[in-house]
Structure to design on (729 residues):
C-alpha cells in the first residue's frame, strides 16, 4: 500500500493520495493485512467513527479470509465485523492489484452501487 | 568452554556446535548471576519456552546426514523407526545468552519444569527479560515469580488459556477435506 | 572489551526505569499526579509504525509516563508453523518481519540446515548474501522514508520509495515476486539466477550510493532535522546491552557489534565492509548508522555480484535427494528420483532430532530462530527472536525527558515492525 502512493504507481492519478489521519474525515477504509482478535475491537471502533457513506476494501488474502493463518489469533476475514465492498487478493497484493481494486470501487460508486452496509443490511 | 563452576549445573551438553547448560530451577538465579558476572554473558538474546507434551508418541525415522555423507550405521537413519529420547519434564525454558566481547560466545541455559512449577524472574540480572518472561507466561503458562509486571502481553488481557501449549487447539475455522492431525 | 568503545559518555549511570524496566512511571515528587493527562497513542495512528499502542502520561507537552502495549498484530506464527511440514513452514517466516522478509527466511532456513547438517553450494551462499543485503537496503529505505515522513520531511518519502521500487524490481526479476519471495529453500535456492539479473543489479549498485548522497544532502545538515533528532532518545551502551538491543540501536550507542563481523555466517568473512559505529546514542546517531549501513550494503552487493558472475553454471541447491527435490527431467527416467519426489512432497523430509539457535544480523538487529525437532516431518517448536520486540522494550528508557514531538522521533528510530514484535 505504501507503494501505490510512491511515484511509480502513483495513486494520485485517481485522486486517492490523501491518506486521512482521522477516520472522521475518511470515506474509504483499506484493511491491509491480518487482523488479530485484539485489534478487531479498535478496528470496529474506527469503522464506526467514519461518516456515511463509507466503503471498505479488504486488502490481501489475510484481510479477506485470514489467508494462510487458520488459527486462534487471526480473525478469519474482516467481513466478520465490517461489511466489505472490494476484496483484493494477494499476499501481499501487488500495487497494481490494489489500484485495480480502488478503480473498480470508483466505477461501482459511479454506477450507483450502494455501499456494502446498505447491500448487506447492516446499517448503524 | 569449561562451565563446571556454574551453580546448580545438572549437565552440560554439546550438540551441533552449541553448548547447553541444564541447571536446577531452584538455583537458576545463582547460575544466571554467575554467567553474567563471572563468565561475562551480558546479553540475553531470547527466552524460549517449549512444551514437550506428546513427545515421542509417534516413532520417527531419523535421517542423519553429515558433511561426509549419510551414516548408515547410525540408529534410525535407514528407515528403522526410532523414538526420540524422552525428555525429563514437560516444559523447558531456554535462556539464550551471548557474550558481547572480542571473543564472542553463545550458551543456552536450560531449566526443566513441570506444569505449574514456578521459576524466579531474571529481570534483576538482565532487564530485557521483562517482556520475554511475560511472553513465556502468556503463551506457555510458565509461572514466573518476582516479575514486576506479570500480565498478558500478546493476547488480550482477559484471554483464557495459553495458546502455544500442545493441548491448546490450533483454532480457526474447520476446513473441509483437511486431514485430522493424529 | 574493545567491543564497547567508551569514547563518549552519553549519560551517567542507568536510566532504565525501576521497578518495571519497560514502563516509565511518573514521579509524584516531580509532577503532581492530578495534573497529568493520560492519552492513548495508537493502535491506529498515522505515526506509529503499525499497530503499536503507547499509553502516555503527559504533563503539558512532556512525557512523564509511558508504557507500550503490543499484541495487536499477533498472528500465531509459531503455533501455525508447528502444524506444517518444514518446507511449508518456510512460507510463514518472511511474513513475520514483513520489511526484511529475506532475512526471516534466511534465519529459518539456516537453522533447519544446521539441524540437518546439510552442506550448501557456494553459489547459494553468495546469492543468499546478495539478497539479504539488498533486503537490508530495502528495509532501511522504508525506515528512512516513513521516519522522515513522520517527522515532517515529507518529500523524502518519495525519493526513498523510488529506490525501494528498484530493489523490489530486482527481487521480482529473480524470484517472480516483489515481497515475501520464498526464494530460499532448505539446501540452497529455489531456482537458478536469471542471466538478466546481473546487468540490472550492476545498474542499481552504481545508482544507489548517489541516491544515499541525495538523502543525506536533504537531511544531514538540515537545521530542523538536527534539532529534532540530536540529543533526543538517549541510550547509553550499558543500558542498550542490558535491554537486549542489537543492530543499529546498539551501534549508535557506541558498541561495535555486528553479527556479520563478530560471529560471521554465510560468507560474510570473505567480503570487505565497514561497520558504522556512532557514540552519541541519540536519534541522529541511529539515522547516521542506517545511512552508512546502506552504503556498506551496496559494497557487499557489488562484491557478491562479482563472485556470482564467475559462478554461472554451478549448482544452486544441494544434491541430497532426501531433502531436496530432484530435477524434473530425472523423474521420467529414474525410479529413485520419483520415489524421493513423492516422499518429499507428500510427507516432507524429516529433520533429525535436536535443538538449535541460529542468529543473523537482520536490518533491525539480531534475529534468531530457535528450532526443536523431534525427528519428524514437522517442526516441534519454532521460536523467533524478534529484534523489534527487544527494541520496543527500550521505549521507556529512551523517552525520559521527551516532548510529544520527540516521542514520534524516538518511536521511529527504534525501527519496530509490528509483525516482528507480535509474531
Amino acid at each position: 500500500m505504501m507503494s501505490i502512493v510512491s511515484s511509480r504507481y502513483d495513486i494520485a492519478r485517481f485522486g486517492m493520495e490523501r491518506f486521512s489521519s482521522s477516520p472522521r474525515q475518511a470515506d474509504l477504509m483499506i484493511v491491509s493485512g491480518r487482523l488479530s482478535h485484539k485489534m478487531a475491537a479498535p478496528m470496529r471502533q474506527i469503522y464506526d467513527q467514519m461518516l456515511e457513506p463509507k466503503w471498505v476494501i479488504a486488502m490481501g488474502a489475510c484481510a479477506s479470509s485470514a489467508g494462510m493463518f487458520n488459527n486462534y489469533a487471526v480473525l478469519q476475514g474482516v467481513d466478520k465485523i465490517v461489511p466489505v465492498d472490494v476484496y483484493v487478493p494477494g499476499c501481499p497484493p501487488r500495487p497494481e492489484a490494489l489500484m485495480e481494486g480502488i478503480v473498480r470501487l470508483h466505477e461501482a460508486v459511479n454506477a450507483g452501487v450502494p455501499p456494502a452496509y446498505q447491500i448487506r443490511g447492516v446499517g448503524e | 568452554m569449561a562451565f563446571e563452576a556454574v551453580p546448580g549445573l545438572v549437565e552440560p551438553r554439546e550438540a551441533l556446535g552449541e553448548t547447553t547448560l541444564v541447571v536446577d530451577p531452584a538455583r537458576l538465579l545463582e547460575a544466571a548471576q554467575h554467567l553474567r558476572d563471572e563468565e561475562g554473558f551480558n546479553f540475553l538474546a531470547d527466552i524460549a519456552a517449549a512444551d514437550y507434551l506428546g513427545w515421542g508418541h509417534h516413532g520417527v525415522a531419523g535421517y542423519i546426514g553429515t558433511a561426509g555423507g549419510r551414516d548408515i550405521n547410525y540408529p534410525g537413519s535407514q528407515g528403522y523407526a526410532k523414538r526420540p529420547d524422552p525428555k525429563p519434564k514437560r516444559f523447558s525454558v531456554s535462556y539464550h545468552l551471548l557474550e558481547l566481547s572480542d571473543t564472542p560466545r553463545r550458551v543456552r541455559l536450560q531449566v526443566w519444569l513441570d506444569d505449574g512449577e514456578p521459576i524466579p524472574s531474571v529481570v534483576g540480572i538482565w532487564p530485557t527479560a521483562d517482556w520475554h518472561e511475560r511472553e513465556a507466561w502468556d503463551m506457555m503458562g510458565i509461572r514466573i515469580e518476582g516479575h514486576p509486571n506479570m500480565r498478558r502481553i500478546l493476547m488480550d488481557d482477559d484471554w483464557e488459556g495459553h495458546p502455544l501449549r500442545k493441548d491448546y487447539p490450533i483454532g480457526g475455522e474447520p476446513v473441509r477435506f483437511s486431514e485430522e492431525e493424529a | 572489551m574493545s567491543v564497547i568503545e567508551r569514547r563518549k559518555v552519553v549519560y551517567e549511570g542507568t536510566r532504565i526505569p525501576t521497578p518495571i524496566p519497560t514502563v516509565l512511571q511518573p514521579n509524584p515528587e516531580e509532577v503532581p499526579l492530578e495534573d497529568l493527562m493520560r492519552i492513548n497513542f495508537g493502535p491506529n495512528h498515522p505515526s506509529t509504525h503499525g499497530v503499536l499502542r503507547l499509553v502516555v502520561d503527559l504533563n503539558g507537552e512532556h512525557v512523564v509516563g509511558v508504557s507500550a502495549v503490543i499484541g495487536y498484530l499477533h498472528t500465531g506464527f509459531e503455533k501455525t508453523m508447528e502444524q506444517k511440514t518444514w518446507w511449508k513452514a518456510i512460507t510463514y517466516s518472511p511474513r513475520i518481519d514483513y520489511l526484511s522478509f529475506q532475512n526471516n527466511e534466511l534465519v529459518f532456513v539456516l537453522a533447519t540446515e544446521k539441524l540437518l547438517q546439510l552442506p550448501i553450494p557456494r553459489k547459494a551462499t553468495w546469492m543468499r548474501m546478495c539478497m539479504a543485503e539488498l533486503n537490508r537496503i530495502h528495509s532501511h529505505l522504508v525506515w528512512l522514508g516513513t521516519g522522515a515522513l513522520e517527522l515532517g520531511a515529507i518529500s523524502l518519502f518519495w525519493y526513498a520509495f523510488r529506490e525501494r521500487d528498484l530493489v523490489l524490481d530486482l527481487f521480482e526479476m529473480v524470484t517472480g515476486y516483489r515481497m515475501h519471495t520464498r526464494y530460499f529453500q532448505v539446501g540452497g535456492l529455489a531456482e537458478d539466477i536469471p542471466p538478466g539479473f546481473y546487468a540490472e543489479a550492476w545498474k542499481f549498485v552504481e545508482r544507489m550510493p548517489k541516491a544515499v548522497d541525495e538523502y543525506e544532502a536533504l537531511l544531514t545538515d538540515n537545521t530542523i532535522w538536527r534539532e529534532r533528532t540530536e540529543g533526543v532518545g538517549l541510550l547509553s551502551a550499558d543500558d542498550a546491552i542490558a535491554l537486549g538491543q542489537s543492530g543499529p540501536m546498539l551501534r549508535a550507542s557506541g558498541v561495535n557489534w555486528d553479527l556479520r563481523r563478530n560471529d560471521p555466517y554465510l560468507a560474510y568473512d570473505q567480503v570487505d565492509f565497514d561497520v558504522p559505529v556512532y557514540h552519541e546514542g541519540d536519534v541522529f546517531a541511529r539515522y547516521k548508522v542506517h545511512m552508512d549501513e546502506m552504503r556498506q550494503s551496496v559494497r557487499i552487493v557489488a562484491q557478491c555480484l562479482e563472485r556470482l558472475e564467475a559462478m554461472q553454471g554451478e549448482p544452486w541447491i544441494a544434491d541430497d535427494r532426501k531433502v531436496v527435490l530432484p530435477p524434473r527431467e530425472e523423474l521420467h527416467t529414474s525410479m529413485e528420483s520419483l520415489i524421493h519426489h513423492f516422499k518429499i512432497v507428500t510427507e516432507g523430509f524429516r529433520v533429525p532430532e535436536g535443538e538449535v539457535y541460529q542468529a543473523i544480523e537482520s536490518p533491525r538487529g539480531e534475529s534468531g530462530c530457535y528450532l526443536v525437532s523431534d525427528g519428524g516431518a514437522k517442526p516441534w517448536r519454532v521460536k523467533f527472536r524478534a529484534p523489534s520486540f527487544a527494541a520496543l522494550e527500550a521505549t521507556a528508557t529512551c523517552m525520559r525527558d521527551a516532548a510529544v514531538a520527540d516521542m514520534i522521533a524516538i518511536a521511529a528510530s527504534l525501527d519496530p515492525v509490528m509483525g516482528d514484535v507480535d509474531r
Remarks:
- Residues 68 and 120 of chain A are 26 Å apart (CA to CA).
- The longest strand of chain A covers residues 28-32.
- Helices of chain A lie at 2-5, 37-49, 61-65, 95-110, 116-119.
- Residues 95-110 of chain A form the longest helix (16 residues).
